[in-house]
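re the bet — no i am not wrong, look at it urself. input seq straight from the record:
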Amino acid sequence: MDAVTFTDFHFPNQTNLYHGKVRDVYTIGNDHLVMVATDRISAFDVVLPKGIPYKGQILNQIAAKFLDATRDICPNWKEASPDPMVTVGVACESFPVEMIVRAYLCGSAWRTYNSNNHEICGIKLPDGMRENERFPAPIITPTTKAEQGMHDQDISKEEILAQGLISEEDYLLLEKYALQLFQRGTEMAAERGLLLVDTKYEFGKKDGEIYLIDEIHTPDSSRYFYADGYEERFKNGQHQKQLSKEFVREWLMENGFQGLEGQHVPEMTDGIVENITNRYIELYENITGEKFEKILSDNILERIEGNILGYLKK
């Protein structure tokens, strides 16, 4: 199975094409987006040199499931998914920050904390916390949305408002939506024996209404721990058994790469690529509770283009 790492379709009434880190986004007219979840994979804000077969299908199908399951909390951009790797939806003007919700001290937050910086995005964290410790309540640590090849930057609520990036009225609603979405995701994860550790949400606005956009609760945008054994592992200072893309970051760090200037991505052998595919399938099945069905195609790009054209003609 070949990985889809690039698309360059030309659809009727297409007005723009944007190649993101892992998605190719086609604007149709002024009101609709066609988002193709490619098999590209990124870490430390760098797109890695090889794609991961089935990754796009996995992420698109997980995101579709959670978008449908949270529509009662806030409007979202999804209208249809005409192909396993495609979502079509409402085009919104996106806010220039991402809302990161964290329930545990881990990942980049832990790396910051462990460097003796106990303030993250203007939030002062208690001294003496340990890696993977649960916060008394989830916290929001926003980041700016960086251009391709650049790193997202932590930013505080106060800085967002002071710079006029988002109005106070809108920001308060984003906070409300983010925490409610995180609570729903936490409840759905618990049904699967998982703990939703942290995640990011992106929002946009159309005709004065705020929409949830992009993917949600996928292993690329979220981190999950297995609930079984969490307390014992934490008590003993052991690594948590988790479902996320962190295993890719850990492999890169073990091989001397963190996206810093002068560093080079380690060789991605066929074995490494296959292992990452298998881990993503594991993520899918554990997060959704459903068996992953590989969609096989002689020509994936032709299939994607045909399904999109079929939908747009309706």
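see?? The first strand starts at residue 14 and ends at 19. told u. also Helices lie at 55-69, 107-114, 157-162, 168-191, 230-235, 246-254, 270-288, 300-312. so pay up
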